[in-house]
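Work Package 3 committed the consortium to producing structural models of liganded targets before the mid-term review. Because experimental data for this complex are still outstanding, the team generated a predictive model from sequence and the ligand definition alone, so that downstream docking and mutagenesis planning could proceed in parallel. The input record is reproduced below exactly as it was submitted to the modelling pipeline, together with the SMILES string for pyridoxal-5'-phosphate.
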Amino acid sequence: MNKIPLLDLVSQYKTIQLEIERAVLAVLASGAYIGGETVRSFERMFADYVGVSECVACNSGTDALYLALRALQIGPGDEVITTPFTFFATAEVISAVGATPVFVDINPHTFNMDVTKIEDAITDRTRAVLPVHLFGQPVDMSALMQTARSHNLYVVEDCAQSAGAVWANQSVGSIGHIGCFSFYPTKNLGGCGDGGAITTNDPHLAAKVRMLQEHGSKTRYYHEEIGVNSRLDALQAAILQIKLKYLPDWNYHRTVAANRYQQQLEHISGIVLPEVLKKGQSVWNQYTIRVTESMVTGQGNHRDHVRQFLLNHGVGSMIYYPLPLHLQSVYQSLGYGAGHFPIAEQVCREVISLPMFPELTEEQQQKVAFYLNEALVSS
Ligand SMILES: *Cc1c(COP(=O)(O)O)cnc(C)c1O
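The resulting structure, written out as tokens with the ligand in place, is given here.
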């Protein structure tokens, strides 16, 4: 039986193997392993791709978010508004700089932060909004920017899952004050290890990030701030530079696959398919459906049954994410409880992400649809 994995990094590697190997060997022979010209040229290429004047590459998406908040001088006493339905790093960095994450509930169809709820969460301590373009889909940035502007708030975009996504003809990462990207291997633009970058049109912010990522130093061995060590390896930059050329094509194929899923799955009852807002273009880092709770049977969790059934038939899937951030044990001190963000909580009980990668074939998707339907009928 041919397995259909959630994602398939090796089959993508094989399509560009010679090019990658040549670039990696060139870096190995160059002796310049951290920073240097390879990293600079990747930064210029990525800035062009996002449509901004500045890009600073760093060690991870988490670091990109951390450096962005530090560069904006967000710290103790400050509040940052974000979503409870995201990867933990989004809120973790707010806490790491000493500020307080403030959550607002999400939209059950896009999985993104409900921008109409931001206004009510603003206090006189609010300094920034941190939207996450989750699963590849842009947040409604028109509404969000309007709210942020009218309250003088910074906007830090978490673009970790959305390299190439567009809102109203603007690439994510070019709309707020600063954009934060991850090049973790499973992201749409993934390296062969950790990596990240910030993008901005503000040269002062970019310079500040550069200083902070080099131990708070502009001139070597002279330190102005307490910074961190967060640089991109030349090996990763060389690999990412090659992969960036293919990203538009890969994102296109993800979109084709998402449209096919839409057609294959729309008649299956008991599930809800993801929706993309009119002004948005998703890059489909994940294709995430909801198995509606009304389908829950007496025999434990319905979603788990569906996942197990798929697994038994060789179809990979994943739960992104099982527990919203306001209910994480580490955040008990924030004072939230069950029922605070009912949509995020429900979505966490219902979501399943299905196989999604650019090389996914129509035949593979037909199998996914077939077994998904079987799973729902059999439970
Ligand atoms: C992956 C991810 C991050 C963190 O990126 P790393 O490179 O793994 O540090 C942050 N936010 C979101 C939404 C992510 O998906």
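Reviewers should note the following from the model. Residues 60-62, 86-87, 89-90, 132, 158, 160-161, 182, 184, 194, 196 surround pyridoxal-5'-phosphate (CB under 6 Å). These observations will guide the Year 2 experiments.
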